[in-house]
Design a protein that fits this description.
The protein is mainly beta and 66 residues long. The protein has no helices and 6 strands. The protein is globular and about 35 Å long.
Length: 66
């Protein structure tokens, strides 16, 4: 069974620092609007909760090699 690690800290209202085993990321946005996440590995994600059990997410990687 693989071991995982993930921890999230609230820095300011609407801003979170997320730490996992391989990277760190900053997430901005809260409430009903979209959330934007930027990771140290170059991943950029925009997500939006929709009514009911639905949601939308778009993830992009940077063009540089890691």
């Amino acid at each position: 069974m693989p071991l995982t690690f993930r921890k999230s800290f609230r820095i300011f209202p609407g801003v979170r620092l997320n730490i996992n085993r391989k990277s760190m990321s900053i997430t901005t946005g809260e409430g009903h609007g979209p959330r934007h996440t930027r990771s140290t590995t170059g991943r950029r994600t925009t997500s939006q909760n929709l009514p009911g059990p639905f949601g939308w997410r778009r993830t992009r990687r940077s063009k540089r090699d890691n």
